[in-house]
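We modelled the chain as a single entity of 227 amino acids. Its sequence is:
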Amino acid sequence: MKEDLRPRTIEEAHEIQRALKKKLKITSPKKAPQLIAAADAAFSDDFVFAAGSLYRYSPLVHMEDAFTREKARFPYIPGLLAFREGHAIISAIGKLTVAPDLVLIDGQGIAHPEGFGIASHIGVILGIPTIGCAKSRLIGEYEEPGPIKGDWTYLYHRGARVGAVVRTRSFVMPLFVSPGHLADIESSVEIVLKCTSGFRIPEPLRAADRLSKKMRRDYAGSPALDK
């Protein structure tokens, strides 16, 4: 994991990204997940705060959370987000006492300029299904989905389907969902919708987002010596 997420240069990061992409598999899941985790990260100063939230799937039941704080060792480079926050996210997931069957990631899967976003990167390294769930589009063209929760359309890039534009709450902005690894577009949409209740963002991701931001706030309020 260390070598796959902590390159010394931008050029080395691109090389790692290309090598890992060769292991990427976009396929329909063999079985429905029983346990789903979600992971998100927040930043303050030079630190990254990552949180993982584990849920029993369908119906959603919260089980546990895990956290990591570490130094950010890679700059923010568009298209290379995995190298900035991926190590902390994987560390947080690894601290869960029960391994998830699938992980939702706040970011892109294959709907990415290189076809290999942070959700794909983490999925390949962990060897488990992942789904990218992003608030905004990074690439592609699409037709606007209908206004009701559950309406969705395909996201296309250079003529290929790379994801879906999903209305997760009626009459609000859609989410951009794309398979990360060991998932396909249709199964990704189904899982994201089943994880979404009265909010735009799937509940496991909402939990991970809240926790990572709370860690950041707690850090900002801690004594300077701890920083």
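As a brief sanity check on the tokenised model: The chain has six helices and eight strands. The first strand starts at residue 35 and ends at 44.
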